[in-house]
Specification:
Helix content is 26%, strand content 25%. The radius of gyration is 29 Å and the shape is elongated. The chain folds into 3 domains: 120 residues, no CATH class; 52 residues, no CATH class; 77 residues, 2-Layer Sandwich (TATA-Binding Protein). Helix 6 crosses helix 7. It is built from 7 helices and 15 strands. By secondary structure, it is of the alpha/beta class. Strand 13 and strand 14 form a beta hairpin.
Length: 272
């Protein structure tokens, strides 16, 4: 095997390993006939969530003829190529973009903007990972499934939450939730799943309302960092509640008092 073929196969293997979608690809020629753009258009032309941006004045019908019929959106606009770097600073401050891609050759001229905006530099034949800037993601759920979900309102957030077992899939750049073939939303009661952070003040208040005498002890680690909080119960019988970052432990000789404390903790936590 020739050295060229070895290098070509190595490049293909590397591309498969690093390739991620969604992505932005810059094509060097408007004809869309040169380089990998041909294969990418064959891949994306049927995807209605894809967008091709072309310079205004070019014959888009001619350029896209080999890829028709296509569902890809096409936008033609004017590319202003004469803007100076100094003017771009003012323009970007007005637009306030979340993330900017700069050509690598402009790195030495962009210094001040790096402190104002999230940015990356791109160069030819190199993949650049762009951070995901959206705070929330949209999720498609079948109407039949959404109607079966039983929602619980979280105590500490204005949010409804439900619980199910299924598959999270990505199709054409959108998240979709599907139940497995052997899964169905059941109305049968299931063991509760508790989550969130215990508010010690609320817990102490709830215990005292039940007639328990309590004292709070803060436990620190060797370096003085906070390790845990311990609530000591002296009456009606002795017990201890140790609240740590990832778990809460109830220690009591009386099973009844342990059960009551467990119910109180469940009452101050969110659960589904």
């Amino acid at each position: 095997m020739s050295a060229f073929m070895v290098r070509l196969l190595a490049n293909i293997a590397h591309a498969r390993k690093t390739w991620q979608e969604p992505c932005i690809v810059f094509c060097p020629h408007w004809s869309l006939r040169l380089g990998p753009v041909v294969h990418l258009l064959l891949r994306w032309s049927a995807d209605q969530n894809s967008l091709l941006v072309m310079e205004e004045g070019l014959d888009a019908n001619l350029a896209l003829l080999p890829f028709k019929p296509m569902a890809m959106k096409v936008l033609q606009c004017s590319f202003v190529s004469g803007i100076q770097v100094q003017k771009s600073h003012h323009l970007l401050k007005i637009l306030q973009p979340r993330h900017i891609l700069f050509p690598e050759i402009l790195r030495q001229h962009i210094g001040p903007l790096e402190t104002l905006f999230s940015s990356n530099y791109y160069s030819e034949n190199k993949t650049v990972h762009i951070p995901y800037m959206k705070e929330d993601s949209e999720l498609d759920i079948a109407v039949e499934l959404a109607c079966q979900l039983q929602y619980t309102t979280l105590k500490q957030q204005d949010m409804n939450i439900s619980r199910l077992k299924g598959e999270l899939m990505i199709e054409h750049g959108r998240y979709r939730l599907h139940l497995g073939n052997d899964e169905q939303v059941s109305s049968q009661p299931r063991p509760l799943v508790h989550f969130g952070r215990i508010d010690l003040n609320n817990l102490l208040t709830a215990l005292q309302k039940l007639g328990m005498n309590t004292t709070l002890e803060e436990v620190t680690g060797a370096a003085g960092s906070h390790k845990a909080s311990r609530i000591h119960v002296s009456e009606p019988s002795k017990a201890m509640i140790e609240v740590m970052e990832a778990q809460t432990v109830i220690s009591a000789a009386d099973e009844n008092i342990a059960s009551v404390i467990s119910q109180v903790i469940s009452g101050v936590l969110d659960c589904i």
